Amino acid sequence: MDPAAGPVLYQKLLLWEPSLESGEEEDEGETLEPLVPDPWRPQDSSGNKAGRLPTAWAGLAAALLLLAVGCSLAVWQIQTNGGSTGSLGPVAPPPRGHAHPPGVYHHGAIISPAATCSHLGRELLVAGGNVVDAGVGAALCLAVVHPHATGLGAMFWGLFHNSSSGNATALMPGPVQTLAPGLALPAALPTLHLLHARFGRLPWQHLLVGPATLAQKGFLVDAPLARALAARGTDGLCPLLCHADGTPLGPGARATNPKLAAVLHRAALAPTADLAGDALLSLLARDPGVEAPSAGPRPTLEPALQLPMPQGILFTTPGPSAGPELLAQLEAALPSGTPNPEPCPPLPQTVVTPASSILATVDSSGSVLLLTSSLNSSFGSGHLSPNTGVLLSNLVARSATSTWACPLILHSSPDDTEADVLGLVASGTPDVARAMTQALLSHLAGPQTQAQHQQQAQEGQMESASACGQGTLLQVAAHAEHAHVSSVPSDCCPLQGF
C-alpha cells in the first residue's frame, strides 16, 4: 500500500479481508493473503507463495483453528463461572487451575447451623455485601428456620474485626427486659439493625428479603429442628410446628410462619434501629397478657476487650458476657507465652449453658464477624406470640448469659505465618470456654504440633476440641489471601463460600 495514500478506514475484520483501496488497482492475478496463515502451505525464500491450496480448503483449515480456540475459551469460561450460579454445591476451582480443600475460598465464606442460611449468606457476599451483611442476613434466616435455638425473641452478642482499621467491635444487647413474668423483651431486630447500620454495605431491606420469603412461602424442617421438636413436644408450638393431629413436624416437612413474615416486611421499612424494634413491639402489645414496655431494647456497639500477647492481640466481648472470664483463663494458660501442652486444660466449671445458636463469616482480607444468640431454653419460653409468630425467650436478668456469649478473635502479629486473623465461636456446652481454649492453644502451638494433634485425634489417642467441651465450635481464618472455615464436629454446620 502506498504510504502517501489517504487514511485507512477500518471495517469489520474478516478472515480474508479484501485490500482496502489506496487509489491504485490491484493486479487481477494477485491472490488475497489470509490473516490466519495456512500452516500447510510452503513458501519460497523470496516471499512468493508456492503450492497454494484452493481457497475453500484454506478457509476450512482456518475455520477449524478458530473453532478450537473458541472451544478452549468456552471451557475456561465454564471453569471460571460454574460455581457462581447460586447452587448449594462446592464452588468451581478458580481460573488459575489450582484446587482448594473444602472450606477454603478465594473471597469470602460463611458457616452456620442451617444449609439454607449458609447459602443465603453466600448470596449476599456474591451480591457485593461484606461479612456483616452476610452474617446479619444469615442470623435473620436462622430466626425463621431454627426457632428452637434462636429467633427475633433471642438475645444477640457479636464480635466484628475490621481488616481495614485492625480494630474489633463488640455488639452488646443491653440489659434484659421483660414483657411479663418469664417473657423477655425481644431485642434481635434493633441489635442486628444497629450492627448493620454501622458496618453493613447492602441496603437493610436486602437482608430481610430471603428470611421473609422463607417465613411466607415455607421452609423445610431440618434434622436439628426435628430433634428439638421430638425432644420437647409441641405444647404451645401449634400450629406453627405440628401436624393437624398435634404431632411434631419431622425432617423434610414444610413449615410456614406468615405472621413472622409480616413482621420482617415491616422491619425492612424501618430506617433506624429503634424503629426496627418498634415494628415488633407494637404488634406484641396486642397479645393477651403482654404489656407494652416503657422503653425498647438498648443495644450498643463497644470497643472489644483486648489481651496483648506475643502471638498477637486477642479480642472478645466485655461483661456481662463470658469474654472477661475467657481472657483470664487464656492468660493463666499462657503465663510465659508458651502454649499449654494439655489438649484439654482444666478450667472452672460453669452453670449449664442455655440453648444457643452461632455463626461466623470471614473474607480473605481478614474481616470477621462472629454472632451468638440464645432463647435461654429450647424454644425459649414456649410462648408463641399470636400476633407476630415470634417465640419469646425466657431470659431474665439473672440468666447465665455469660456461659454462652464468648466469641474470640486473634489478630496475629506480623511474624505469625499461620493466619492473619483467627475467629472462634462455640455453643451448647456447660463449659464452652474449654473448647475455645483448646482450639486457640492448638493454633498457637504451631503447624507441627497441630498436625500431630490431628493425627492423634484421628487415631483416637487424644481428646478433640469437641471432647473438651461436648459442643459445637466454629473456626474461621484469613490466611494467604484466602478465607478458611471449619467446625467441630466437622459435619455440624454447613459452609458456603466463593
Could you explain how this protein is built, in words?
- It is globular and about 55 Å long.
- The relative contact order is 0.15.
- The protein has helices at 55-81, 115-126, 131-145, 188-199, 204-217, 223-232, 258-268, 273-284, 323-333, 432-444, 447-458, 465-469; strands at residues 104-105, 108-111, 155-161, 168-172, 178-180, 183-184, 219-220, 254-255, 300-303, 305-309, 312-316, 355-363, 368-376, 383-384, 391-392, 408-412, 421-427, 472-479, 482-488, 495-497.
- With 498 residues, it is α+β, with helices and mostly antiparallel strands.
- The strands form 5 sheets. The protein has a 7-stranded antiparallel sheet with strand order 1-19-18-17-16-11-10. A 7-stranded antiparallel sheet has the order 9-4-3-13-12-2-20, with helices on one face. Strands 5-6 form a two-stranded antiparallel sheet.
- α2 (115-126) packs antiparallel against α3, α4 packs antiparallel against α8 and α5 (204-217) packs antiparallel against α7 (258-268).
Please name the defining characteristics of this protein:
single chain, 498 residues, seven-stranded antiparallel beta sheet
Question: Which percent bin holds the helix content?
Answer: 25-40%
> Given the C-alpha coordinates, what overall shape results?
globular
Number of beta strands: 20
Structural class call reads: alpha+beta
Report strand order across the widest sheet.
1-19-18-17-16-11-10
Number of helices: 12
Largest sheet: 7 strands, antiparallel
Work out the strand percent.
Answer: 15-25%
Rg from alpha-carbon coordinates: 30 Å
* pLDDT < 50 runs, ≥5 residues: 1-5, 7-53, 72-94, 448-464
Mean pLDDT: 76
